[in-house]
Amino acid sequence: MAASGIKVISPWRLFRFVRASQVFRIPGVQLHTTGALMGASVEDFNNAKAQLGTLKKDPGNHVKLKIYALFKQATQGPCNTPKPGMLDFVNKAKWDAWKSLESVSQEEARQQYVDLIKSLVSAEGPAVATPPPESAQAFQSLLVTTEDGITTIRFNRPEKKNAITLDMYKELIDALHHAGKDDSVITVMTGSGDFYCSGNDLNNFTGIPQGGIEKMAKDSGELLKHYVKAYIDFPKPLIAVVNGPALGVSVTVLGLFDVVYATESATFHTPFSQLGQSPEGCSSYTFPKIMGNAKASEMLLFNKKVTATEACNLGLVTEVFPDGSFQSEVWTRLKAYAKLPPKSLALSKQLIRSKEKEKLHAVNDAEVERLIERWLSDECMQAIMNFFQAKPKL
Ligand SMILES: CCCCC/C=C/CC(=O)SCCNC(=O)CCNC(=O)[C@H](O)C(C)(C)COP(=O)(O)OP(=O)(O)OC[C@H]1O[C@@H](n2cnc3c(N)ncnc32)[C@H](O)[C@@H]1OP(=O)(O)O
């Protein structure tokens, strides 16, 4: 169907509705037939063909078949190709549609084609200027784009190694909610620059706001809970493209992703005890489940930094790619994933997740409760002061 600029999908769905009737009456679309005798010019016909590509709504297979048949009839005259076999549903449906127009002249078919496209365009209402992408409008510290069925959420503070500020947590929650509802098939998280993300921005705990330090800890706890909840409840496949070192909360939530791809030089580090803190992102549950208690304890209690290959052997990372070909190999693969049937993907993910959603929410609540205490502890305050005074690298 390349010539008519349309694609017919799902042989089974097509078979079901085309089998019943070859009469094209299209509900919801009023045909403004200007009369076959007047005849549309070749220019009108070409314009209509171009307009077809601008339709925002999928007109459905029934209409697409009609468009196809009119296009063939207008450009080639009556159907003159052998009838496809009964089991070749798509080609049989197309052939039947074209064949059913054999008594229509080419000129008349051209006019009907033009009228049909006009009707579809006017059914969509007046053209509205496309707003700039939400990323450009709304987000300060993220780059969010949707292309080829993939919504990409990119941490975008490379000068601070993509550390997550309080505002950035809010932006990430918004971006995830939006991605969960948009028409993309998969969602990808990645980082700008040489880091994936250096975790919580330690400045989040340095200013003492009105209401005192207890209120700050409580508010941060609420924010963290919502942040992690956005991952637990995320309805579509969520894929991390770990382009460099990852720290703290950016590592712990990886246990809530469906797939994690990492470049060879990436590292994974959760230095909680070093910072006087405790695990979050449901890692106190997901890490032992993924890698076993002993290995999880090395990471979550004893601050062990693991390489991408080690993280892959532990089951936290799905696959590791050479640094040189990481981006091209991963994005080629993601583009192919985004062509899979979206509903099937989302429903399969939800089946997997639904078994333990309740558990994950309970773990999130418990982790946040513990962290609120930790943030008020001398151990934690001392660790943060040390970072800003001596700037020891983790
Ligand atoms: C709502 C609240 C929820 C809280 C949830 C809790 C989560 C827990 C965690 O996430 S724990 C992990 C916290 N992260 C860290 O402790 C990392 C601290 N940073 C470092 O150790 C190093 O900066 C580094 C190893 C990430 C990178 O070292 P490198 O030498 O390559 O680069 P610089 O140190 O020069 O970094 C460039 C500038 O970026 C600033 N920066 C980097 N990470 C953070 C961070 N997490 N918080 C604050 N600032 C960070 C760094 O200070 C440099 O800034 P400067 O140019 O102004 O000096």
UniProtKB/TrEMBL annotation:
It catalyses: (3E)-nonenoyl-CoA = (2E)-nonenoyl-CoA; a (3Z)-enoyl-CoA = a 4-saturated (2E)-enoyl-CoA; a (3E)-enoyl-CoA = a 4-saturated (2E)-enoyl-CoA. It is found in: Peroxisome. Its EC number is 5.3.3.8. Keywords: Isomerase, Peroxisome. Its main location: other. GO terms for molecular function: delta(3)-delta(2)-enoyl-CoA isomerase activity; fatty-acyl-CoA binding. InterPro entries: Acyl-CoA-binding_protein, Acyl-CoA-binding_sf, ClpP/crotonase-like_dom_sf, ECH/Chromodomain_protein, Enoyl-CoA_hydra/iso, Enoyl-CoA_hydra_C, FERM/acyl-CoA-bd_prot_sf. Residues 41-126 form the ACB domain. GO terms for cellular component: mitochondrion; peroxisome. This is Delta(3)-Delta(2)-enoyl-CoA isomerase. It comes from Electrophorus electricus (Electric eel). The lineage of its organism: Eukaryota, Metazoa, Chordata, Craniata, Vertebrata.
